[in-house]
Amino acid sequence: MDTIAKRLEAIRAELLPGVSLVAVSKTKPVEMIQEAYEAGQRIFGENRAQEMAAKFAALPNEIEWHMIGHLQTNKVKYIAPFVSLIHSVDSESLLEAIQKEAQKNNRVIACLIQVYIATEESKHGFLPEQVLPLLEASSRNRFPNVAIQGLMGMASFTEDDQLIRREFSGLAKLYREVKASSGLPLPILSMGMSGDYRIAMEEGSTMVRIGSSIFGSRS
Ligand SMILES: *Cc1c(COP(=O)(O)O)cnc(C)c1O
How far apart are CA 97 and CA 70, in angstroms? Predict the structure, then answer.
């Protein structure tokens, strides 16, 4: 079986220019994260606040921790002191909670707006038409300790590549539109996982979140 270093190398070789890689380490032990770290990986994604906080405490400070999973407002406090990017902002009340905790920690927390794009099952996220008003509220300084950096989305869990492509291309179009209308820099479009990152990159992703193709499947 390939090592983590080999799998990372193979995935990095496929990344299109300007695409960064989040190694999704949720449920995986610190030893495996350390192995990826030693192979040069610096960005790791987790979906549970307390698990991320425990791993942060156990691993090198150079790691950038990204929250990628649904985050409850009462859990923001566990990650607010150190999280580098929250991909999964899916409600205004979560944005308010992040604002509050970021201010307490005297920092600005980078966030992505999660957009609901999957047609086949219920996933968290804002509707496309809600995104621009939210960006406008944030640029009016309603959330001074939050820096919105772009959008995130998850495609349907399906074998239908055409459907996945349509969902990603729809999100990419929304991303270009809100970038133009808001005038904000919005450098990040986070889309693509182990099963669909190639399609996501072809459709304009700038950040892919890959777990099982690096660390093996999760039980
Ligand atoms: C688990 C997860 C991933 C990674 O999934 P893989 O299929 O293991 O690559 C990416 N994004 C989110 C939001 C996830 O929860």
Answer: 13
